[in-house]
Amino acid sequence: MSPDADPASFGRVDADGTVYVRTAAGERSVGQVPDTDPAEALQFFVRRYTALELEVSLLEKRIASGTLSPDDAAAAIKTVRSTVTDAHAVGDLDGLLARLDALQPVLDEARAARRAERARQQEETKAAKERCVAEAERLAAGTDWRGGVNRFRSLLEEWKQLPRLDRTTDGELWHRFSSARTTYTRRRKAHFAQQAEQREHARVVKERLVKAAEALADSTDWGETTRELRGLMAEWKAAGPAPRDVDETLWKQFRAAQDHFFAAKQAAFAAQDAEFRENQTKKEALLVEAERLVPVTDLNSAKRRFREILDQWADIGKVPRDAMRSIDNRLRAVESAIRQAEDERWRRTNPETRARAEDTAAKLEAQISELEAKAARAEARGDTRAAREAASSADTYRQWLEQARRAASDFSG
Question: pLDDT tens digits, residue range 124-157?
Fold first, then answer.
């Protein structure tokens, strides 16, 4: 029916008040209103049509707006169609049925859109669950025993918020997720069980180390005890952590024993250092006196005084480590100078050396006498060249003789 068409044009009223509606299937009776004006009787059934037309219009709007699902819309169309088909109303009932038929393509499009949206959502859901599974499996293979628990809780809550997939896919993904969580939980429990066992073992070890440290706390064997305490500290570090409720207490006890020993050692070394500094001052004063002996002019006196200084040096005792080398070097320098003077005197007074020098001089004198005689004989026979050569050689030997006599003089002095 045209929007401007009069619904009353689709019906008529008989003389007995029976009202008819015309449709493509023919004319049929929709009711009877006796003893009433035919126009009023017709309008009564037109108003029924108007109500049906309003119902169809509302259904069209709801379907167009998408407020009805395709299945609900199809059910509503079916209901309205049944009502329109058998309606006791006058109007363009065929037009209403055509309008209802026109809604079917809309429903088909809506179903297709819903299927596409559902498929998209399913893909997104599948991707989200696969991400959850992948992260769960990564956590299950890792060692994040603290943060992993909270992350698994978050993943589980995220999983619960996601829609279900088809039974097979959803089941497979859930099985992987659940297996990863179970694996992580078992490995985590095993880790902490092993850690608890290690901590308990560490507690036993550290209790023993505390007793050992306390037994050494009052020792005055500074070197050996220091080495022993260092060994105990190495054992302590290797033992690892004990249970938290005792680890700090054991450490305080162990540290207190160490601190007691090292405080006593430091006090003793401080007193010792003061003594050593005083010794250093005394030895430096002796060094000044010893260094006055150099250069050595009176060997016997220098040796006697140096021995006295050495006796005093030994009586004084130790000096600080940082001063030992310089002080010892200075003392050795004086000792070396005295030894060199002694060696030089021995060299000069050595009888064998002096005898060798005198023998050399005698041999040179004999050689000179022979050369002089040779020169005289050559001169006598007129061989001036031979005489000159013999005289030159004699001069050379005289120079060597002078050197030999000086050496012999040195050894006899």
Answer: 898 998 899 999 999 999 998 888 889 989 999 9
Amino acid at the residue 383: D
4 or 204, higher pLDDT: 204
DSSP code for 30? E
Cα–Cα separations (whole angstroms), residue 209 to 150, 225, 228, 231, 254: 38, 14, 11, 10, 7
Structure tokens, 66: 């998408």
Q: DSSP assignment of 372-409, as one string? A: HHHHHHHHHTT-HHHHHHHHHHHHHHHHHHHHHHHHHH
Chosen domain end from 349, 375, 399: 349
CA distances from 398 to 48, 372, 376 (A): 171, 11, 17
Range of the domain at 140: 118-195
Do 40 and 100 fall into the same domain?
Answer: yes
332 in Cβ contact with 354 (< 8 Å): no
Over residues 378-392, mean pLDDT: 84
For CA atoms 73, 79, 84, 89, the dihedral sign is negative
The pair of three-digit structure tokens given for residue 399, joined into one six-digit string: 């120079």
Q: Which of 268, 283, 305 is the last residue of a domain?
A: 268
